[in-house]
Amino acid sequence: MFTTLLKSPIPFFSSFNSTQNPSKTQKGNHSFNKNSKFSVSKTHRNGPIKMPTPPWMKGPLLLQPDEVLNASKPTTKRSSNNNSKAPEKALFGKESGVRGKKVMKKIIRDVEKLQGNGALDDTQIGKFEEFEIGNWLEEIGSDGEVKKFDRKMPWVREEEKVVFRRMKKEKVLTQAEIILDNDLLERLRKKATRMRKWVKVMKAGVTQDVVDEIRLAWGNNELVMLKFGVPLCRNMDRASEIVEMKTGGLVVWCKKDILVVYRGQNHWLTSNGQRVFNNLASDNNTTMSPEKSNASTWGRSLNGEDRDENNQPVVGSLYERETDRLLDGLGPRFIDWWMRKPLPVDADLLPEVVPGFKPPTRLSPPKTRPKLTDEELTNLRKLAHPLPFHFVLGRNRNLQGLANSILKLWEKSLIAKIAIKWGVQNTDNEQMANELKDLTGGVLLLRNKFLIIFYRGKDFLPQGVANSVMEREMALRRCQLIEEGARVKVAETFQVANESLAKTSTVGTLAEFQDIQTKYGVLEKENNELEIQIEAQKENLERELRNQERKLAILNGKIEKSAKKLAKLNSSWQTAEPDLDLETITEEERECLRKIGLKLSSCLVLGRRGVFNGVIEGVHQHWKHREVVKVITMQRAFLRVIYTAKMLVAESGGILVSVEKLKEGHAIIIYRGKNYRRPSKLMTDHLLTKREALQRSIELQRIGSLKFFAYQRRQAILDLKLKLAKIRSEF
C-alpha cells in the first residue's frame, strides 16, 4: 500500500542529508514528525532509505532506493477506474472543514480503509499494533504523568434510536369503487373530466330543490356535476355522503369543490330516491368484479374491525361512538351536517313549546359564588373549543324544546355547544342566546354568528339531585309540624282549668314564625330589592355621566390643539388675486377645447393635498407641450370642485374651459391662452409645499373626526342627564 503512497504526486524535497543514520529508527521517526522537511540519504544507494511514517506506525519505514519516487518527473497517467479513490489521497487529501463530527467521521473511515489494505503488512517493520484513536488521546496531569482519555468519542452511539414512522392513512374505497366495474368507472371518470356545466349548491346545502334539479338533469345525462359553496366545500367527504344518501346516486369523481354523481342504469324505473339507490346497487352488482364483490361482502371482517358483544361490526371511531351515546335521546339528528361526524341534534325539529316546562332549580354549594371569574371563563372557553357540536339551530324564538334537551345534556356534560345553520335567513344569534339564557339559566361563554356556547353554571342541580333536595325540605317541614303538634299537646295538658284555650300564648311557636314571615318578610324583601336596584341604577348612570364628561374634556383639548396647528399652516399661505383682465374665448373655441381636453390621455391628478406649489408647476409643464391641461380631482362635493377650479385658474393664469363629471372623478379643463408665456419660476412662494399640504390635510381630517365624536359625547351626556333626572323625580 505504501508503495502506491510513495508514487503519489506529493512533492518530496530533493535535498538529502548524507549524515542521516538509518539505524536510528526511533529517533529519526520523531525528528520527522517535528519537521515538515525530511531528508533521505543519497550516499548509501544500495542500502535501505528511511521514509516518513504516519503517527500510528510504531516503527520506521525503510525502502530501497529504486522504490523511491522521483518528484522531478510527475506522472500524468490516470487510472482507468475513475471511481476508485487512491489511498494516499485519503491520507493526505484535504477535508471540507477543520473540525466537527462529520470531519472526524471521514478521517476515521479513511484510516480504516488504510488499515485494512494488505500492502501495509509488507512495508511495516516490527510489531504492528491495532490502531485505536482512543489510545492517542492523552492528557498530561498536574504532576507530569500521562493519563489516558477514556471518554467515548462524540460519534460513538450507545444504542440506535427507535424511530416510529407515521402510519399512512389507508385509502377507503368509495361506494362507486365497490359497486361499479373498473371499465365502467374509468369511462365515467373520463367523461366527468370533460363536463363544463354544474348545479350550484349554496350555503343551505343539498336541499330538496337541489335534489329535484339533479334528478331533472339525470333525464338527459347519466352524470351530473355539483359545485359546492361554503361550508360543504370544506368537507367533501361529508358532501359525498349527503349527495349519495339524498339522491340515491354514486359519486364517481371528485376534485376540489366539485362532485360528479352517476345516476345508474335503471334510473328511469322510479323517481323515489331510496328505490333508485336499491335498483342501482342491484343492477351494478351484476357487473361487479369478483374481487370487489368479496370486498363489499366480507371486506370488513378481513380488515379486522372491532365487534361488539353481539358480534356485530362497530361503526365509527371511539370519539363518534361516545358522542352518539351522549346525544342519544335528545332529538333527531341533522343529516345535512357540514363537518365531520358525529351528527348533532337538529334543534329546529324539536317542539317549540313543552307543556309544564319551567327553569331548573339552582342552588350554589356552601361558600361558593355562582359568578365565574375571568380565569374560570377563559379555561371553560379553552375546554369547549375541541368539543363536538351538540345542536344545530336555525330559528330565533320558541326554543323550549331546545332548552329541555340542553338541560338533559347538562346532566352528563358541563358545556352545551350550539352551531348556527348556514343559509338560513334572518338568524339573530343575540336573540337566540338571550332566550336560551332565560329558559335554562346557564352562563353564556361565547356567542357569534357561527356558534353559541353555554355553561351549566356552578349552581346547576341535575334533576335527581333537585328532587332529593325537595324531598329533604319536605321532610324538614314535616318534622317542624310534628314538633309543633307535640308542643300543643303538652301545653293543653298543663293548662289551668279556668283559663280559656284562646288566651294561650304563641310566643316561640312555629305559627308565630310563619305569621311574621307572611306579614313582613315578603314585603320587606321586595322593598329592599327595589331600593337596591334603584340605587344601583343611579350609581351606574352617575358613573357613566362622569366618564362621558371626562372623555368630552379630552376631545375638546385635542380639538384646540389641532385647531392651533391648522391655523399656523393656514397663515403660511395665501391665494393669488384673480386677474381682472382675462382673455376671452368664443363658445365654438370652448367646445373644441373641451373635446380636446376630454380626449387627453395624460392628466394631472389632485390627491388629498389639494392645490400646492407642485401642482402649479405640473400645470405649466403640461402647457409646455400642449395648450390644454386636464386636472382630475377626487372631491365629491361639487362646490369644492368649483372652488378648486377657480383656485387653479387664479394661480396659473389660464382660462377655465369646463368642469366635467367622469367615472373616476371630476375633470377640470384649463386653457393656457393665446398670449401665454412660460414663467421663469414655475413654483410659487405663496403656496404650501408638498409636506405642508399633507400636514394640513391630516389636520383637517383629524379636527373633523374630533368634532364628530365630541358631538356624540354631548348627545350621550344629555341623554344620561335626562334619565337621571327622571329617576330622581319618580323616587
Description:
One of its GO terms (molecular function) is mRNA binding. Keywords: Chloroplast, Coiled coil, mRNA processing, mRNA splicing, Plastid, Repeat, Ribonucleoprotein, RNA-binding, Transit peptide. Residues 28-41 have a biased composition (Low complexity). Residues 178-274, 370-467, 583-683 form the CRM domain. Its main location: plastid. The protein is of the alpha/beta class. Among the domains are: 175-262, 2-Layer Sandwich (Translation Initiation Factor IF3), CATH 3.30.110.60; 318-362 and 370-460, YhbY-like (Translation Initiation Factor IF3); 524-573 and 698-730; 578-687, YhbY-like (Translation Initiation Factor IF3). 45% of the residues lie in helices and 10% in strands. It contains 22 helices and 17 strands. The strands form five sheets. The protein has a five-stranded mixed β-sheet with strand order 9-10-11-13-12, with helices on both faces. Helix 10 (236-247) crosses helix 11 and helix 18 packs antiparallel against helix 22 (690-730). The protein is extended.
SSE inventory with pairings:
Layout: H1 2-6, H2 25-34, E1 49-51, E2 61-63, H3 87-92, H4 101-115, H5 119-123, H6 133-136, E3 138-140, E4 146-148, H7 175-179, H8 182-193, E5 199-201, H9 208-218, E6 223-228, H10 236-247, E7 250-255, E8 258-262, H11 273-285, H12 290-302, H13 318-327, E9 345-346, H14 374-384, E10 391-393, H15 400-410, E11 415-420, H16 429-440, E12 443-447, E13 451-455, H17 463-493, H18 510-570, H19 587-599, E14 604-606, H20 613-623, E15 628-633, H21 638-652, E16 655-661, E17 666-671, H22 690-730
Parallel strand pairs: 5-6, 9-10, 10-11, 14-15
Antiparallel strand pairs: 1-2, 3-4, 6-8, 7-8, 11-13, 12-13, 15-17, 16-17
GO cellular component, one term: ribonucleoprotein complex
Region (Disordered): 13-55, 284-312
InterPro entries: CRS1/CFM2/CFM3 (IPR045278), RNA-binding_CRM (IPR001890), YhbY-like_sf (IPR035920)
